[in-house]
Design a protein that fits this description.
This protein has 405 residues and is of the alpha/beta class. Helices cover 51% and strands 9% of the residues. It is globular.
Length: 405
């Protein structure tokens, strides 16, 4: 079994009190940018953009794009001019804030041990900062990114959702090819880290010395303690208890919501000639995968959910959707356009599902293959279908890299 660890950064690997760090950060940045932007306007725009990021639900817009849409409208400054200044700030001034932080005792030893055990590790920090700001804070914590094999470091350039949205945790796992073995989220924030990860169905380890839960008794981590307590807990925990639990409605919808975001992140900058690359004879290209996902949502998933809402115990015929790749000449279609169309259709499907009451969620249906079942089970199958094709896209991209190496 290969365990996957999702590690928070601030408060977990790096002691960084937000009530101290944030005012110093805002003051330093606003003073640096003052020749170009009024400091008060700058701070207001920065915070407004950040609030917009925390509320983003669009799977086709990265948090950076969401932030910039608000920020540039408020500061009335050319984007290229600001980006140059921001790069200078993060290279010249941001490093001076290191003195406000210090490594969490025992964090380096915990990560070193996890690496020795062969765990897969990603940094699941709230992706509201540029990558450089996160990489620098990792270095302050004792984890220079060039020395540690973190599979993902969440940042606003690539990610579409933020904590505590369970879709954020689904997105990072999608970029990690949806691990089939156990996954544990380790973090110090009960609401953002533990509650969000629990909602996806992840096992959680809460960094909290005394273990007292105040203010949110409904949030229950699997284990709490200091970071030094993590591996002793792991050594006594059966692997099957760490598998992702996709049984809840919240978890399933988070998976469905993350799929278009992950595909957008993986494919938005792909060279045009690679969309139709087939790794082997008879295998699908990226274009074919995206056409398949688009048409299945359009002609199977959305109509089925609609019928469940409008009919009593409807009969749902099966569809041979794999044959559509040839009969509809997917390879001759436009891959990027298919991705855009899939995202539009998936958002419509999620909007429809958001109207479903808990009672309707268990509505009975008769399926041509599965027999008597219910809407919940159909969505379980749909979420599993998404994960299969996310892994398939990764495999195709691996073959592309191998071909180009």
């Amino acid at each position: 079994m290969t365990l996957t660890l999702l590690l928070d950064l601030d408060g977990t690997l790096l002691e960084n009190k937000i009530e101290t760090f944030l005012p110093e950060y805002l003051q330093a940045f606003s003073q640096f940018i003052e020749p170009h932007i009024n400091p008060q306007v700058f701070v207001e725009a920065l915070m407004a953009g950040t609030r917009k990021m925390t509320r983003n639900q669009r799977p086709d817009c990265t948090l950076k794009e969401v932030f910039e849409e608000v920020f540039y409208q408020m500061v009335q400054l050319d984007s290229r001019a600001f980006k140059d200044q921001a790069e200078n700030f993060y290279s010249q001034v941001f490093p001076t804030l290191k003195h406000l932080t210090h490594p969490v005792p025992g964090a380096r030893e915990m990560v070193d041990s996890a690496i020795e055990r062969g765990f897969r590790i990603s940094i699941a920090t709230n992706p509201l900062f540029p990558l450089t700001a996160i990489q620098q804070r990792l270095a302050w914590a004792g984890f220079p990114p060039d020395q540690f094999p973190f599979e993902q470091v969440a940042s606003y350039e690539r990610y579409h959702f933020s904590k505590p949205d369970p879709a954020f945790f689904a997105e990072i796992l999608g970029y990690m090819r949806w691990p089939e073995d156990g996954v544990v989220m380790v973090g110090n924030d009960l609401e953002r880290d533990i509650s969000g990860a629990n909602s996806l169905g992840l096992s959680t380890f809460w960094i909290n010395e005394d273990g007292n839960i105040t203010g949110a008794p409904q949030i229950i981590p699997q284990k709490s303690g200091s970071i030094k307590d993590f591996h002793p807990w792991m050594d006594t925990t059966k692997p099957e208890f760490l598998q992702i639990d996709f049984s809840s409605r919240t978890s399933l919808l988070a998976v469905l919501k993350s799929t278009p975001a992950v595909l957008d992140g993986l494919l938005r900058n792909l060279d045009a000639e690679l969309w139709n690359f087939q790794p082997a004879e008879g295998s699908w290209s990226l274009t074919e995968v995206l056409c398949h996902l688009r048409d299945v949502d359009t002609e199977v998933n959305h109509p089925r959910v609609r019928r469940v809402l409008e009919e009593v115990n409807p009969f749902l015929p099966s569809e041979d959707t794999d044959s559509w790749a040839q009969s509809r000449d997917y390879l001759g279609q436009d891959g990027p356009q298919a991705l855009r169309q899939f995202i539009i259709m998936r958002v419509k499907l999620l909007d429809l599902m958001s109207t479903i009451s808990p009672e309707t969620w268990n509505s009975k249906v008769r399926h041509a293959i599965f027999g008597p079942t219910d809407l919940h089970e159909l969505v379980v199958i749909l979420a599993g279908h998404d994960r299969v094709h996310i892994r398939q896209v990764h495999e195709i991209l691996d073959a592309v890299d191998l071909k180009n190496s």
